[in-house]
Amino acid sequence: MDTLLLLKAAIMGVVEGLTEFLPISSTGHLILAGSLMGFVGGKAKVFEIAIQTGAIFAVILVYWQKIRGTVVEMPTSTEAQKFALNVFIGFLPAVVLALLFGKYVQEHLFTPVIVATTFIVGGFIILWAENRPAAATRVLSVDDMTPVDALKVGLVQCLALIPGMSRSGSTIIGGMVMGLSRKAATDFSFFLAMPTLIGAGVYSLYKDRALLSMDDVPLFAVGLVFSFISAWLCVRWLLRFISTNSFVPFAWYRIVFGIVVLVTAYTGVVNWQH
Description:
- With 274 residues, the chain is mainly alpha-helical.
- It is built from 12 helices and no strands.
């Protein structure tokens, strides 16, 4: 396989891993990075979704103790059963909407200009959420969440179907607005990502299997490995960061980056392919 293509896969993997769990949209960054490198087309779209699985393996590793404890205790522990049910409830809305509108979104919304626009909109939403009068925190831990809390977070996760809106940003900020603590919202966002992104990756590979061949295995393997490594580093850093910081820096990053993309697109300085 072309060495340059493998290098592009590695870069895309790093971009995915570093941005998947930050409130800045991994899909948006992958679309922009792919556009800059000429890594576009049907196979590239499948690749962008599939390598999210590598990032999820990193989350599974970080949260392995909680996952293992839940699985082992589920037959006898009502708390473990409640947690698993909440993750399932939160997962369902995105599945339904993805099956209904996923194809349309991929065909019509996976463009650099739309990504840049949603970067800016999402940035202002984060600024609003972080600067609004502090609401009473009802939920300090994911174990304190009710099924209704899980459903609400699952519904805001659906915003991430729009590229650039950020799945983690939607769920974390949405959860905080609904009364979850910053830590609880972040933890639940990570747990919700596991079935959501693994399901999306498997479904995309199956649905578009006609575009792929065994020759593509090295390409996907490189992307997965680099996604896993960079995501593992990023998740560990983010969990430390949120203990003492807000998401305001990410909001300004989104706004500035979005403006830069729009300006370069409309002036022709950069030829953003899609």
